Records
---
Amino acid sequence: MIPVDRRSARPLYRQLYDGYREAILERRLRPGQRLPSTRALAAELGISRIPVLQAFDQLLAEGYCESRPGSGTFVSGSLPDPRPVAVPRAATPEAPRGGAVAGRSGLLLGREPEPWLDGRGAFRMSQPAVDLFPFKVWSQLVNRHAREPFAHLLQYGEPMGHAPFREAIAAYLRTSRAVRCEASQILVVSGSQQALDLTARVLLDPGSRVWVEEPGYGGARDALTMAGARLVPVPVDGEGLDVAAGIALCKRARAAYVTPSHQYPMGATLSASRRLQLLSWAERAGAFLIEDDYDSEYRYDSPPIASLQGLDRSARVIYIGTFSKVLFPALRLGYLVVPEDLVDRFASVRDAMDIFPPTFPQAVLTDFLTEGHFTRHIRRMRLVYRERREALVDALRSELSEVLDVQGGEAGMHLVATFRKDLRDRPIALRAARKGLWTTPLSSCHHGNATRQGLVLGYGGTDVAGIREGVRRLRAVIRST
């Protein structure tokens, strides 16, 4: 328990004294606990008894220990507990106790638990088929850079990201997503969540009003809330965000967060008419549009939808993309496409946050992109996910058509099953999670009162057999409600 270093310049008795004192203060040795005899301790440590006696004498003199004749040496029973006493936190997150922490840090506390996000398996959201990832190719690329590391990859990097990686991203976006950009506008981040946080820091002041889709992505609401924004829920329908409703609710909002290619969670595509309305409103209002293009690579009944950013002629759109969902979540690499006049602001904020993104994985993914592996992987996974989507739709219609309707199954790696009957989604999702089914209640995607009840079902990470079995088990859960 008490380490002794014979090579240390510190005397042995001092090492023993410090060790026992620390153990007593940290409550590893409790009041009334008996210490070993000086003779036994000296023999165990293989040292002279003299430094042990000196250490114990000092502990006794300072009151950390007490001697009981005929019984030995014990930790003092009169020592107060040195650990801080727990002070109840303030009743509201806006008023933390004693001003010790920022009120904003408590804005997300007190929410109900979400156990459907805890597991891995059938219907878990944002779970790709990682078992089908080309590990051999990826390992070869990793080994290539590990065997011959360039010195500049081991040094501090640029806040905007590794230059060759940004070039590769820009080339990919121009050809596959119709994004109008140069590499100088690309900022590399740790996934789309950091992109949202960074964007909110640059664009918003506390109290700024921001349109958010209703229902919509909770992670975006969290990032905007932490920036002090006042959220304005704007309804979505079959054409995506209802721009006219947003203008009626808040004409002078600072920004709008949208998922135009594949609305999360309902799956709608923002229509051409609404895209033009949204861009027109942003230009008139001096607002920014935060376009989250989180899984647009996977579209099954038509080619991928072109980006909203590609239609922007007024530099009002901040475009967010990620590799974490289309490759594997632990990669934690995403990117922003920033209007040219805002690049310096974004770069300076990024520098203040964490200086620069890790260079090594960027270098590996650069090769993965430029050598064609990414395109081949996306092409293959599009077929896999299409098959899994069809299996899920067929199973839901076969097993549960009397209680739910399927929506938003044309793209991505999830769909929504809305309830026809008077069913509550959260109790069903909680019960399903206890059965190992990770269904997300649609109501959790609402900022205000949920107008629809249903389940958001991911299918990317589960094979066809697992999907069919999962639907049968889900039917049993729903019928037991």
---
Amino acid sequence: MATNHLQEIQQYGQSIWIDNLTRDMIQSGELKNLVENQGISGITSNPAIFEKAIANNAIYDADIEAGVRAKLPTYKIYESLVFADIRNAADILRPVYEASNGVDGYVSIEVPPTIAHDTQATVNEARRYFQEIGRENIMIKIPGTESGLPAVEQVIADGINVNVTLLFSVQSYINTAWAYIRGLEKRLAEGKDISKIASVASFFLSRIDSNIDAKIDAKLHRGVDDINLEAKLRAVKGKVAIANAKIAYQEYKKIIESEQWQVLAAKGAKVQRLLWASTSTKDPDYSDVMYVDELIGRDTVNTLPPSTIAACVDHCDVGDRVETKVKEAYQLIESLKDPDINIDINTVMDELLIEGIDKFVQPFKSLMNSLENKVKLLSPV
């Protein structure tokens, strides 16, 4: 029998989640098969995923009509569709949640991206989503913005599972980890159980390489006379995201070795795992599974879109690599400061965070517009 590489990856302490959710997957049994037979142990969703799932899919029309008859506003119709899918997916993953003692088996749903910079609105929506969906094994996605992290802290203190999303820089990950720790400490100080709370820190990959590669290509396009300089520039292409992730993992290790964390661990706290996100390779010259193969390691999650899952099943080269070539990773990031390369990684990370929020806001607005049009179409004259 052929090796199932997805299940093989689990042996190294990494969980594979799918970065996609549609009603078709749920109703056809595809999701159940992925969970029961292919080693998928979680799901992430976001506004862009739901726009693709709902906008041009007749499978949702009956529920939209029901919402119209109930005179629900468009936003509430949207929530009724999405919450139903999240509940059904969570039920399919419930056995994984129970078998893993709450480490895996989660479905992630994002608060509206339009409130990414509003701390209190984020807290309020996270609480409402968790209560209304009514499943233990869901994670509320909150962007790791300056306004988002205080919300993460409070929501964790409330006992709600959190997926902190849109992390690009190593420092943003460190800030996220300590927000999680502060939330647990706050909850513990209130005499409440912290053993059932789970969190992941979603660290984005391919968007980093796409941004930096474009800057390198622009330099090469302008022309480089020195062959050594050209080699120096090309050596950076397609390498920064993985190097950045490996450095973040080293910071994770430092955090869980800290005295502060050890106190919480003794009370049953679960580690906040690093989750590798944005893992579909954008450049056809690169391996379509490079963001999988190079970042397999203990206490991590990799969330893959369906195309990357299929590619990994076919040809992932599985090995414990998240702690290999760490010295080279630090050297590569440091090399960006070289005057010949001259790329400010902090500026890149700031750009990506702004773009990342916009990439969720735009499809969210587009989906609301599509739904509004469907509501008009399906409304009685």
